[in-house]
Amino acid sequence: MSDASYLDGAEAARSVPQLPVAAPSDYFQLLKPRVMSLVVLTALAGILIAPVPPHPLVAFAALLSIAVGAGASGALNMWYDADIDAVMTRTARRPIPAGRMEPESALAFGLVLSMLSVFTLGFATNWLAASLLAFTIFFYVVIYTMWLKRSTPQNIVIGGAAGALPPIVGYAAATGDISLASIVLFAVIFVWTPPHFWALALVKHDDYSRAGVPMMPNALGADRTRLEILVYSLVLAPLGAVPWALGFAGAVYGAVAIAAGLYLAWLAVQVYRRREGDIARRAAMKLFFFSISYLFLLFLIIVGERLLTIAGII
């Protein structure tokens, strides 16, 4: 080969666009691990409230499948929402908008995980649970991400059903059925979702405006959002104590649920009253962060109480 031919070949190789090579950490980020941790906890609560808890290996397989299904939903969400993520400061460093991963890689990753999670859950437990998991993934990706998120300020309200389904999926995996108790846990998460996300949206409304996402504050105004947050929080405060009232959560849960619900409602009142400047932003973020602790705490106590009961300690 002549020097000229070699140089021409090298120049041609340099002109070919180099595709990004995603790191394992980028694939892990696609799974939305913080969301996944909440999904696992709430699904575990659904499994443990079953009248007869399943064998530990079956429970583990169910939790693993539900966690992978949640991760698949996150990956497909990031694939479809890459254009929105690129213009929002909160999400601009995600793998696709940051240029560390091709969208097609995230799509393939999400689809493979979706199928693996659904079929594993079906073979390990039952096909009712698998069907519910498949519906959860479909609802989050197609109904919420592809449709509701970009079309209505009620996106979080309706779309929140996907995030609220893990306790029902967990209970179905353990029993092959759906119960009032699992529906109550669904309702707690469903009612919790709007005030949690809208509190953040009050602070990040400029991000959503740039992205063209009709979140409540930039679509209907901050005052309407504060009112909706207050209403949902006032409903959530007593609803959180219903598991204790129905007898599938203990006295510790009841005391914490009542106290935490009252405090959450008080924070919502502060968000409603404080409407200007830094004071308003601090009130909204305080509600946002406490709402995370609130939900984790309630489900963690249910899990703890049920494990202690199974072990014969209480």
Automatic annotation (TrEMBL):
Q: What class of enzyme is it?
A: transferase
Q: Which family does it belong to?
A: Belongs to the UbiA prenyltransferase family. Protoheme IX farnesyltransferase subfamily.
Specify the superkingdom. Bacteria
Membrane topology per the entry is: Multi-pass membrane protein
Biological role stated in the UniProt entry: Converts heme B (protoheme IX) to heme O by substitution of the vinyl group on carbon 2 of heme B porphyrin ring with a hydroxyethyl farnesyl side group.
What keyword terms does UniProt attach to this protein?
Cell membrane, Heme biosynthesis, Membrane, Transferase, Transmembrane, Transmembrane helix
Where is it mostly found? Answer: membrane
Residue ranges of the TM segments:
35-52, 58-80, 101-121, 127-148, 155-174, 180-203, 229-246, 252-272, 284-304
Q: Does the keyword Repressor apply?
A: no
Question: In the UniProt entry for this protein, what further remark is given in the free-text comments?
Answer: Carbon 2 of the heme B porphyrin ring is defined according to the Fischer nomenclature.
Q: Mind telling me what this protein is named?
A: Protoheme IX farnesyltransferase
Source lineage: Bacteria, Pseudomonadati, Pseudomonadota, Alphaproteobacteria, Hyphomicrobiales
**PROSITE patterns, A to Z:** UBIA
Catalytic activity field:
heme b + (2E,6E)-farnesyl diphosphate + H2O = Fe(II)-heme o + diphosphate
Subcellular location(s): the record lists: Cell membrane
| CDD domains per record | PT_UbiA_Cox10
- Where does the record place a coiled coil? none
DNA damage as a keyword of this entry, yes or no, is no
List the EC numbers from the record: 2.5.1.141
Pathway(s) the chain acts in: Porphyrin-containing compound metabolism; heme O biosynthesis; heme O from protoheme: step 1/1
